[in-house]
Structure formats: C-alpha cells, structure tokens
Specification:
By secondary structure, this protein is of the alpha/beta class. The protein is 46% helix and 14% strand. It is built from 19 helices and 14 strands. The strands form 4 sheets. The protein has a 5-stranded antiparallel sheet with strand order 2-1-5-4-3, sandwiched between helices. Strands 7-8-11-6-12 form a 5-stranded parallel sheet. Bound molecules: adenosine-5'-triphosphate.
Length: 474
C-alpha cells in the first residue's frame, strides 16, 4: 500500500475541507497514479487509475508543480486517451513529498467555466496554497511513519520479553493478584506500590493484558530514567520549532502513542513538579497539548503508575502534588517484598531454573537442601529481580544437576545451615573457608599456581597445603 493510501480516510476528509473553502474540486493521487481522494465527479473514482498520465508523470518526475489551462489546447494533454471526453477545464497541481521523494500529487480542478476563470485569475495564490497543503500532508506522513516505526520497535521489545507470568501463592501475593485481575476491565487509575524488583511492571502488564485495551501496546515510561528537562517532551510531544534542537516535523509524545491503550508511568515519584501539573491536566481533561502546539489532542488512555518511594511523605514535604496524588491513588495495589513472603521462594526458584534451562540450554534440576535453606534465609533486598539474576548466574556456572551451598555467592551462602542442628562458629568458618578454596584452586592446578595462591591469600605454603588436604581438594 502506498504511503498516501495508508492514510486515505484522513486525506479524503482533508480534500473535502479544502474543496469547500476554494469552491473548486480537489483530488489527490499517489505515485502509482491511483486516485486516493477526490471531490465532485471524482468522489466515485477513488481507487481507480487516473488519466492525465503525461501531466502527472511529469510532476512525479520533476518534483515541480504544473498547470493545464485548457484541456483542448495544452501540450500536457497531447496523447491522452481521454482528451476527447475529458470533463476538466483546468488543473493546477503540486507534488506531495515524503523524505524528499514525490509520493503523490494534490490538484485543484475546474469542471465549470467560472471555476476555470477563478483558478487562472488566482493562480499565484492557489499555487502557494497548494504548496502549504502539500507541506501539511508531508508532516502528517512523517508523524504517522515515526509513530508506526516506534510502535514496531516497541512491539519487538514486547515480544522479545516473555509474557508476564506471576509466581506466588503467598496470601499477600494472592491478594495483590486478586485486586489486579478484578480491576483490569475498568479504566480506573491503578497505583502500584512496592520496593524495587517486586513485580510492579509485570503487574501493570498483566492488568493491561487482561483489559479490553490489550490489542494495543502498553506504553511504558520510566520517569526516573529520563533527564528532567526531557520528561515533558517525551510525555507530551512537541511541534516543530518548539525549542532549540526540536526535530523537524516535531515529535509524538507517549500519551498520544498510548491513545486507546494503557500508559505505565514507572517511578512517578521522580516526575518533576511542572510535569506533574501538566499530567494532572491531561487526566482531568483527557487531552494533551504538545509543547509549542496550539490545539489540544484528545486521548483515550488508562493510566497505571508505580513508585517505590514514600509518596505520602513527598506530599507532606511538598515535592509531590496532593491533588495529583488523589487523582492517581484510586486503586492502590501493594506488592510485598520477597522477605515478607519467603514461602514464595521455592516456587520462584523452580520457575526461574526452568526459564534459564530453556534459555541457556542447561539441565539444572534443583537445589541441595542446604543451598535452598540459604536462599530462603537471605533477605533479598533486590527482590525478585535479584533472585532472577542469581538463578541466571547459577544456571551458567553449576556443572552438576543440583545447586550446592558452595555454588552460591558468598553473601547468600553465609545464610546457609546444615540440617536442623545449630552449628558452631568453627563449623561455619570451615564451610566458608572450604568454599573460598574451592573457588580459587582450579582442578589440576600446578605447584607454581598453588604457591602463587598462598602468596595471594597471605598464608604460608604449608598452611595452604594443610587446608587443601583437610577439605579433600588435593
Ligand atoms: N511474582 C513474580 N513472578 C515471577 N517473576 C517476577 C515476579 N515479580 C517480579 N518478577 C520478575 O522480576 C523482575 C523485576 O520485576 P519488575 O520489573 O516488574 O519489578 P518492579 O517492581 O517494576 O521494579 P522497579 O521498581 O525496579 O522498576 C522482572 O524480570 C519480573 O519478570
């Protein structure tokens, strides 16, 4: 489909508006010489090949406008098969560009003598008018192309990621999931709260995927990841020339992109105050205004936002708008940290072992009891994200089928215990020592390498050999 055909409904409305202003008929053809839009006699010719092949072909080739003043006496019409019964008396045409290439032609047509007189008398002005109309179409083509490119990129990212799959049978997690599923169908704003890595983003995806908006991509924006001076233009877009450095043709904002979909505003606590004010307006009026733009653009969006910050404290301190807080906090959902729901750990570990086995073509089957104990005893400050990373690390380094305590990184292994009996400090120290040596002494290490290791660990060679013997490492 040609670029102009892709936006045919827009173009048809456009030519009708122009025709009613000019009191002449207007048509647009694409570079394949198919009529994309038309008024008057040409309304019924949309989708058909056009005559004027010579005239239009010349415009496509040269990129310059042209005029037929009189069909019966114009060199442009020589050779045209329809000349004898052509109803047009005059035709003023101008090329439409996209990325410096001619993709179509817009033309004003006179079917009646009065119209012809009008076209010829006002030719200069009309030519100028057509030029501006062509520029507007070029800008529309550009923004539509940018928008669909962006959507394609987002789709690629979206499909590259595995679909959300929540693991967690703990009552706290089940409660969060129950609310999430229940509110998915409504358009009410959801406010996700929880520490970093607790699953706020996948909860947002779940809500979107269970909603009636799922056919369109959820648009995510991390307010903390964008420099403060760019948040506004990212969210609301801008018009050409809105500020120094603004791109030609302007830029589509994330709110416009999220029309008929869901927008996920992550780290909303990091949104600068002036942008908060503008966001509040968008939520109240359901329309966005681009920076430097003159007319508001209506948007139909569902907002889901998230933060790990204490937003109530921010409201009290005046760094987050109170009215916005109430506007956003319609359906609060709390995602509990992993240390408050340790019972979810075995299922999460099994889930991610399966995930990385598949992804990395590994064959891990599980964890030795002491290793699992250590994982459960650890506090997981980075929550599920940290757990996922650890399982990825283990899937890469573990040789056997089961993860042992000594496979775990030290900061987690230190939480390990052997069986139910409480262990002495000496036992735990020995365990730790063994793990360090196992990691540092390569199997089959040469005498020279072992001597070098003794130097690194700042112990005598005799001590090193004694310890290696004790732990069965030689
Ligand atoms: N309950 C869960 N089941 C399975 N995977 C989970 C769960 N919770 C989180 N994850 C995974 O952990 C990682 C981090 O989750 P997510 O990005 O949703 O957290 P977040 O709360 O949005 O973090 P941040 O606040 O840092 O943006 C993701 O890869 C996600 O798939």
């Amino acid at each position: 489909m040609t670029p102009l055909m892709k936006i045919q409904p827009f173009i048809q409305a456009y030519v009708q508006a122009i025709a009613s202003i000019l009191e002449a008929d207007v048509t647009i053809v694409d570079h394949e010489l198919i009529r994309v839009a038309g008024t008057g006699d040409y309304l019924n010719e949309i989708g058909n090949a056009v005559s004027h092949a010579n005239f239009f072909e010349k415009i496509l080739k040269t990129g310059k406008g042209g005029i037929i003043r009189d069909v019966n006496d114009d060199s442009n019409c020589v050779g045209c098969k329809k000349r004898a019964y052509c109803k047009e008396l005059a035709n003023l045409a101008y090329p439409i560009f996209q990325n410096q290439t001619v993709v179509g032609i817009i033309s004003i047509i006179a079917f009646r003598e009065q119209q012809r007189k009008n076209v010829l008398e006002n030719m200069g002005k009309l030519e100028e008018f057509l030029k501006y109309m062509s520029m507007l179409l070029e800008s529309k083509l550009y923004t539509d192309e940018a928008k669909s490119k962006l959507e394609e990129q987002l789709k690629a990212v979206h499909t590259a990621e595995s679909a959300w799959s929540f693991v967690g049978d703990s009552p706290k997690m089940q409660e969060a999931l129950r609310i999430g599923r229940k509110v998915a169908k409504s358009d009410s704003t959801v406010f996700l709260r929880g520490e970093s890595g607790t699953g706020k983003e996948i909860m947002a995806k779940m809500i979107h995927d269970l909603s009636d908006r799922r056919e369109k991509l959820m648009i995510s924006i991390n307010c903390a990841a964008i420099p403060e001076n760019l948040v506004e233009s990212e969210l609301f877009g801008y018009e050409e020339g809105a500020f120094t450095g603004a791109r030609k043709h302007g830029s589509v904002g994330k709110f416009e992109l999220a029309d008929k979909s869901t927008i996920f505003l992550d780290e909303i606590g990091d949104m600068p105050l002036p942008v908060q004010t503008k966001l509040l307006r968008v939520l109240q009026e359901k329309q966005v205004e681009r920076i430097g733009g003159r007319k508001p653009i209506p948007v139909d969006i569902r907002v889901i936002c998230a933060t790990h910050k204490n937003i109530e404290k921010m409201v009290a301190e005046g760094t987050f708008r109170e009215d916005l807080y109430y506007r956003l906090n319609i359906i609060p959902i709390e995602l509990p940290p992993l240390r408050m729901r340790r019972e979810d750990l075995p299922a999460l570990i099994t889930h991610y072992i399966g995930y990385y086995n598949q992804k990395l073509n590994k064959h891990l089957e599980g964890m030795e009891p002491e290793a699992l104990d250590a994982m459960i005893a650890y506090d997981w400050p980075g929550n599920v994200r940290e757990l996922k990373n650890i399982v990825e690390y283990l899937a890469n380094i573990v040789e056997g089928t089961h993860v042992t305590l000594s496979d775990l990184p030290d900061h987690i292994a230190l939480h390990g215990s052997r069986g139910d009996a409480p262990r002495s400090l000496d036992e735990m120290m020995s365990d730790y020592e063994k793990r360090i040596l196992m990691r540092m002494v390569k199997p089959g290490a040469s005498l020279e390498e072992k001597n070098h290791l003794a130097d690194t660990l700042q112990v005598s060679r005799a001590t090193l050999y004694r310890k290696l013997k004790k732990y069965d490492l030689i």
